[in-house]
Specification:
The protein is an alpha/beta fold. It has helices spanning 33-36, 79-100, 114-125, 151-154, 173-185, 203-217; strands at residues 7-10, 20-25, 46-51, 55-56, 62-63, 67-69, 75-77, 108-112, 132-136, 159-165, 189-195. The chain has one domain (7-217): 3-Layer(aba) Sandwich (Rossmann fold).
Amino acid sequence: MNSTLKYLIREPKTKTKNPSLLLILHGYGSNEEDLFSFAEELPDNLLIVSLRAPLSLDFGGYAWYGLQIDASNNTVSNIPEALVAKETIIKFIDKLQKKFSFNPQKSFLMGFSQGSILSYAIALSFPKKITNIIALSGYINTDITTFSEKPSEDYKDLDFFCSHGTEDPIIPVKMARKAITTLEENTIKYMYKEYYTGHAVTPQNFSDFKNWISAILDK
């Protein structure tokens, strides 16, 4: 598949005509190898693709969009870059669909932190692309999200697994809880879990979303 983006791929161990995709978006300062470490522990029938963000950072690692600290010591996202990243990922999903003909109803978009923020934005803006979302340690950024005017119709197939650390110093847990309120307001199906941890994915967190994935695949 031609793409300027770097990625890792694990094709299904059992070949199927319309596989279930798991597309992984890493967090700020990380890379495509981070969450891909989960791959061998996930169901064999998944097509797993882990995408590297396009922006290189001075201290190593990659980002989907830039972050700055403002005069009040708040972290500010570069919205134009975030919108470009969102569009880039959507085009990549379309390329995957063309090559593999994956089943959107049994496919997954998983993101951590910055990748989670983009996963929320993509799902709520384009709910038919991939219907199952794993949002780890993220929140809904309304500046990059286009909400449906017909949520009961457009969002009826969406299903979210959302999780957050109660001690997260990077993205406070209250932001994740606010995202859940937004899902509820739009009558979107979800499972929400909190863990006594910081900005991280615990073994229990992994076990929980792995079981959630398996339950959807087994339907």
